[in-house]
Amino acid sequence: MTLIKISLLFMATAVAEIVGCYLPWLVIKQDKPLWLLLPAAGSLALFAWLLTLHPNAAGRTYAAYGGMYIAVALVWLRVVDGVTLTRWDLVGAGVALTGMAIIALQPSTGG
């Protein structure tokens, strides 16, 4: 898989995970309707399925995914929560994405 395909798949995976966790947060913290738990469950199921689409071992996929999750969560923080990102946020996301690329693009060793 190319870095672009891996990144896009990880981005979609991160959004599915964040939505799946954000909706219950709205129900619990902001007294939103309970029916929001249904799309939350569907979103978390989608998240789990998307992780299975990667050819690498599960642990390696989860490790690489973590870097993209950090970056997408910071975008969520800015866009949804309206919080201005700091230079530390941006540098941290860059480091995390670099780690993701290193893990995801390593030469195949058969395992």
TrEMBL record:
Keywords: Cell membrane, Membrane, Transmembrane, Transmembrane helix. It is found in: Cell membrane. The keyword Repressor does not apply. GO terms for cellular component: plasma membrane. It holds the Pfam family UPF0060. InterPro entries: EmrE-like, UPF0060. Its main location: membrane. The chain crosses the membrane at residues 7-28, 34-53, 62-79, 85-105. It is a multi-pass membrane protein. Belongs to the UPF0060 family. This is Putative small multidrug resistance family-3 protein. It comes from Magnetofaba australis IT-1. The lineage of its organism: Bacteria, Pseudomonadati, Pseudomonadota, Magnetococcia, Magnetococcales.
